[in-house]
Every structure is written in C-alpha cells, then in structure tokens.
Amino acid sequence: MTAKGVERRLSAILAADVVSFSRMTSLREEETLRLLNALRDELFDPRISKSCGRTIKLMGDGALCEFSSAVAAVKCAIDIQQVLSAQNNAVPDEEKIELRIGVNVGDVIVQGNDIYGHGVNVAARLESIAQPGEVLISEAVFQQVAGTEDLSFVDLGEQDLKNIPDPVRVYRVSLGQNSRSVHVDIRYLLSKPAIAVLPFTNMTGDPEQEYFSDGLTEDIITALSHWKEFPVIARSSSFTYKGKAVDVRQVSRDLGACYVLEESVRKAGERLRVTAELLDADTGHHVWADRLDRRIDDIFAVQDEIAQQIASIVEPARVMPEFRRRCALASE
To answer: 3-184: which CATH topology?
Structure first.
C-alpha cells in the first residue's frame, strides 16, 4: 500500500474488443448478443481462467483482463485469436465475430476489483489500433516475451497513441509462426526514412572485446532513437546480421531501412579507433564517414562518448539528404 491507502502493483493487462459490434447489433440485435455471450462463455472466459488471468470488467463488447505474467497474457491472447479464427472459418459470414487485442505491462492502481492507470490506458489504445484478429503488444511486453519459444513478432515501430503523451513502440504477434524472430512492417517504415545500425565489426583480434563492440552498437541505437523523425530499426532485427558479410541493399529490402550505419573498432595498446560509415541503402553510396580515436582509460565512458559523437553527427547527415529528397519529390 502507498500513501493514503492507494494500492499499486505491476500487472500484464489484456484489452479486447469485438470488431464492428455496433454495426452487427444494428442488423441482427438478438443474434449478435447470443453470439457474444457464447464467445464469452465458451471461449474467452475459459481461456482467461486457464491462463491464470482474471477478467476485471466487461464493457459491452469489450473486456479488460489482468495477468501476473506477460508471457501468460500474450499466449492467452494468441490462443483466443487462433481458436476464434478456426471457428470463423466454419460459420457463415453473418455469424463471424472477430476480436482486436492489445497487451501491455505497467503499474496499475487497484481499487476494489478494478484497476486503473497509465498501464491500463496503453493496453486499451493498443487494442484500438489493432486490425481484426491481431494481437498488439507494447515494447514493455516484448522485452518480457522476446525469448519465448514459438513466438515471432513484427516490429511496427513507434506509434502515437491517443491521449498517451509519449510514443510507444508496438509489435504485432505473428499468429501461427514459430520462428522466435522479429520482422519489420515495411508499410510503417515507408512513410519515414528509417535507419538500421549494424553491429560493430570487432577488428581487435580479441574475442573478449565483443561485449564492448555490442555495447557500443546498443548505445548508438539508443542515442539515435531519441530522434523521433527517423525510426531506428530495433536491435533484435539489426543484430541478425552480426558476423555476416552484408549488402546494404539487402538490408534495405529485409528491414525497410533507408540508411544503414556500419562501424568497426580496432584496438592498439590503450587506444581505440572507431570507424563509422553512413550509407544510402538504396544505392550503397556513402552519405557520411568519420574516424574517432580515443584512449580506453574508462571503457564505459568511451562507449558513451563515441555513441553520442556518432549520433550527433549522423542525425544532421541524415536530415539534409532526406530534406533534399523530399524537396525534389515536392517539385515533381
């Protein structure tokens, strides 16, 4: 309990809603209500209970549920959507019911049997932007379930959700796929010039320096992600190229990136040399390149400094070509 008797806890929240319920009731009111009740009694409620969740409240054609585990919430959502999809394939169109589901993990305020707060609001907003039959999850949920077997995801990038102050990175769970992988939704990235930061090439000859190279890549991804105009491809996607010879045009096709940042690091005694190149992914041409030499007195301070240096230079280097590109398109 916190001050003034307000109880808080960390929960996984599942928000679900029936697609086009108002239209369905306007056409076949009693039959639609019967189908909705059957959905709850025969599918939704038993699956929620089986997954150790609880239904907080029913809101007409929607439901809000709470779980103590993000993995349980996501697997329950997948189970519901897959069973419902199979049922819909066996009935006439007028008897089909489709759900949108959103899952978030966050701090909630507990009041009686109800829960409130930002974590609940994000789950509801994720559900509202989902397509029929989809399960959308937040970055917070993705971090909890990314290593789970038999799950794969599509990175939708950062989304502006209604009445949520900061953008939320959103992933779509790929139903029926068991690859434990992350893909990128190219349709989202086509509207914004995305950048992929490839893993640093460790040229020190010292395998123990791999952690430094990987940490530097992660720091640069984090620094660049603060620039909202340009989506940054998720680490889990760009790191699939670690240790491979890469054609940046293939990266563009795979990840939907307009720009690719390649880097390498060398070590000589107590000094480091970091080389970075920003490439136009369509042509493979250089947009910018630089070399940074630093002492390795404090390896973490060096990581932070190099990441910030590269990020501060890369951002304007991306902005100007993109500005010229858009001006050219506008004049055509």
So the answer is: Alpha-Beta Plaits (3.30.70)
